[in-house]
Design brief:
single chain; about 450 residues; alpha/beta; Rossmann fold; seven-stranded mixed beta sheet; 16 helices; 19 strands; about 40% helix; Succinyl-CoA_synth-like; acetate--CoA ligase (ADP-forming); EC 6.2.1.13; CoA-bd
Length: about 450
């Protein structure tokens, strides 16, 4: 089985395509029409065209590597058999009603999986919202407007297609996009173990975000994480007893979160506890240099938000080092002793020298990571030019938490992103992103310690 037919298909068949707006087969066609390749709507009950593509009666009538299956579960054995006979190499199954439902559904899923294995077909799903590869304009999903998600550098592998779609739209709304999004669904023969290596090898993916409910192939999953060179962030749901709900969703096994936390921490994976943290941590790891250590410098133009940042980091066990003597002297001179000038440094409000304060703290040899908070003011803007010089000179993560009207600050926010300064929408989100960077150093050390530990 090869995944190349998912990542680089030569021809796509939409089986169950429809002219009727609102039907799954129509929504899938609205998304896939952006693909720069041959698209074949397959439906023996339809004639004419849909979105300019002529209907065909059977997948046997076309040459396609990928099939998007927009048909009910009971007819899928016949559909997968026909796909195999026609040389289709990958199929996305949107329908539910399989192992997540009952024993009959489990038998049906086993049947289509066996047929797929017999014909060497990669299955995404069943019970999935599909996948997207924005760089290829490939939107293999029925979710309306998913085609509007643009390219980014975070790849999302979500056990729940709904979670993958939610993460993708949030990243799009905030101006980032994704390199890929896969909704794994029931993982018939394609899951984390198969897709993590593919995203790890993808030059467009600088961080991998995982949403996990549970996996039958736990060892294969851990091996894929351990072998990956791309930073991985994972959100494992199930802190409370929702195992029945989870099993009814993607047929996921009931697995304790601590099992994942302990195993992934020794394999260099950063764990988070919410979807927003998953998004922010992945962006921080994708866009920041690897810090040399865990010492954090905080620079804030407003005390209240700065206290939120400091408090959130302290709760995660992160300490703030004393600034070096020469750094402290420079900061005192810039601020004239009217605010809190130790670490965290509070300038009281935005000021012309704010960029100099950031620069001074960031260059301190005691500081490995810098987190900044500043409300946007039209008369000052953000210190983008100074930050560009700074990031050219030092190889440290510098994160910026922003506040203000989006239309006023958006240009400068994007400019900061372009020079490698990730931006965040609230003090807590900025702090959580810093904590993820610190955690990535800890898990990397645990992975190293594990690799050099003597065998028992």
């Amino acid at each position: 089985m090869t995944l190349s037919h998912l990542f680089d298909p030569d021809g796509i068949a939409v089986i169950g395509a429809s002219k009727t707006p609102g039907k799954l087969g129509n929504d899938a066609m609205t998304n896939i029409e952006s693909y720069d390749g041959d698209v074949y709507p397959v439906n023996p009950s339809s004639s004419g065209t849909v979105y300019g593509y002529e209907f065909v009666d059977s997948v046997h009538d076309v040459e396609a590597d990928l099939a998007l299956c927009c048909v009910p579960g009971p007819v899928l054995p016949e559909v997968i058999e026909e796909c195999g006979e026609a040389g289709v190499g990958a199929a996305v199954i949107f329908a539910g009603g399989f192992a997540e439902v009952d024993a009959d559904g489990e038998r049906l899923e086993r049947t289509i999986t066996d047929l797929a294995d017999e014909h060497d077909i990669t299955l995404l799903g069943p019970n999935t919202a599909g996948y997207i590869l924005p760089d290829l304009d490939l939107y293999g999903s029925f979710v309306p407007r998913i085609r509007e998600v643009e390219s980014g550098n975070v790849g999302v592998l979500a056990q729940s297609g709904g979670v993958g779609v939610t993460a993708s739209f949030q990243l799009e709304r905030e101006g980032y996009g994704v390199s890929a999004m896969f909704g794994l669904g029931n993982r018939a023969n394609t899951g984390f173990a198969e897709l993590i290596p593919e995203l790890d090898a993808d030059p467009n993916t600088d961080a991998i975000a995982l949403h996990i409910e549970g996996t039958d192939d736990f060892e294969g999953f851990l091996e894929a994480c351990e072998n990956a060179e791309t930073p991985i962030v994972a959100f494992k749901v199930g802190e409370s007893d929702v195992s029945d709900f989870v099993q009814s969703h993607t047929a996921a096994p009931d697995q304790d979160n601590r099992q994942y936390e302990q195993a992934l921490a020794t394999r260099g994976v950063t764990m988070v506890s919410s979807l927003t943290e998953l998004i922010d941590a992945s962006r921080a790891l994708a866009d920041s240099p690897v810090p040399d250590g865990q010492n954090v410098g905080v620079v804030t133009a407003q005390a209240g938000p700065g206290i939120i940042v400091a408090d959130a980091l302290k709760q995660k066990g992160i300490e703030f080092p004393d600034l070096a003597d020469d750094t402290q002297e420079t900061v005192d001179d810039l601020l004239q002793g009217i605010t809190y000038t130790e670490n965290p440094v509070d300038t009281g409000r935005p000021m012309p020298e704010f960029g100099e304060v950031i620069d001074t703290v960031a260059r301190d040899e005691n500081v490995d990571i810098v987190i900044v908070y500043e409300i946007y003011e039209d008369s000052l803007g953000y210190p983008v030019e100074g930050l560009e010089s700074l990031t050219d000179d030092i190889d440290k993560p510098v994160l910026f938490t922003i506040a203000g009207p989006n239309h006023a600050l958006e240009e400068e926010r994007r400019a900061m992103e372009a020079i490698g300064v990730p931006t965040f929408q609230s003090p807590k989100r900025g702090a959580d992103a810093v904590a993820a960077l610190v955690d990535s150093i800890s898990t990397e050390q645990e992975e190293t310690d594990r690799s050099v530990a003597p065998s028992p």
